[in-house]
Amino acid sequence: MSNSCSLITELLDEKSSSLGFMELLNTQDVFGTSVLQAGKPSTEPSIHPADQDLKPRVRQPPEVFNAPATPNTSSISSESNDHEQTKEEEDGGGGGGRVENQKIKKMLKPKKTSQKREREPRFAFMTKSQVEHLEDGYRWRKYGQKAVKNSPFPRSYYRCTNSLCNVKKRVERSSNDPSIVVTTYEGQHTHPSPHLHRPIAAIGPPPPPYSGFSPNCAATLPSPPQTAVPSHNQQHFVNYSVLLNSCGYDIGSTNTATQPRRFCSKPSPSPLLTDRGLLEDVVPRSVIKEE
DNA sequence: CGCGTTTGACCAGCGC
DNA sequence: GCGCTGGTCAAACGCG
């Protein structure tokens, strides 16, 4: 329904701006969505209120936010470039007695407080959706929730369920516009999307590269650029999300990966979805037939 | 039983 | 130094 999502992301490090992502932006331009320029000062007034939660913590310059294009398809993104040196290093073998273990470790091995906690590149998306946790093809496990200052809505913290993947994401609603969900991804997946192991990936022609991104897909990409994950896979899923989205279904929930999915009972009359081929491209035919 | 969520506590960084 | 806030941990709990 109100799921007009959009993505805008930017790469703060202009030099490292990956083509794919920039192309994404360009693609958006194609369908009327203004492309936000990277590097805009975060003081941009048009930034959605939700950014307030993102902005304040601008500890490092790299964090920049874009102004939303439209109220409906606004999105932002941010990124901090440096690679994080998380506490992962305390591999030691975290067995039981974690609390004590941690304390002991901290005492014995004080954190490198000297160096600021560096983070993975972050990408924020503002999505107009009724569901907070947008399906993006990966499985997430919620590991925390915090009340957000100046916002009645809590912020949820998710982590990729893949133990080898350190991608995280935060999900929160805009305090001013509850219909807008701000999703911030941090890090990059080091594995393919679980969904893509399903037959779905084998259906339809191979998806085009980023450059050939389907217009009606580019507007919704609740996932940051992938490095290890084949981009076409991501796109594939994006299509999927868009379709569901356009069909008027929630495009995801916390457990969408494990919960039964719903599909359009009938091919949506939506102009964006008249292309049945595209639908088949991302939705298993068997599923479609079922309906 | 395995997996995911909830929730309170804890910690680190930042601003005053 | 202190308080605030964001971020994370992990035990408890719920669900299929």
From TrEMBL:
SUPFAM superfamilies: WRKY DNA-binding domain (SSF118290). It comes from the Eukaryota. The keyword Transcription regulation applies. PROSITE patterns: WRKY (PS50811). One of its GO terms (cellular component) is nucleus. Residues 69-79 have a biased composition (Polar residues). InterPro entries: WRKY_dom (IPR003657), WRKY_dom_sf (IPR036576), WRKY_plant (IPR044810). Residues 104-114 have a biased composition (Basic residues). The keyword Manganese does not apply. Residues 129-194 form the WRKY domain. Gene3D superfamilies: WRKY domain. Keywords: DNA-binding, Nucleus, Transcription, Transcription regulation. Residues 36-120 are annotated as: Disordered. This is WRKY family protein 11. It comes from Cistanche tubulosa.
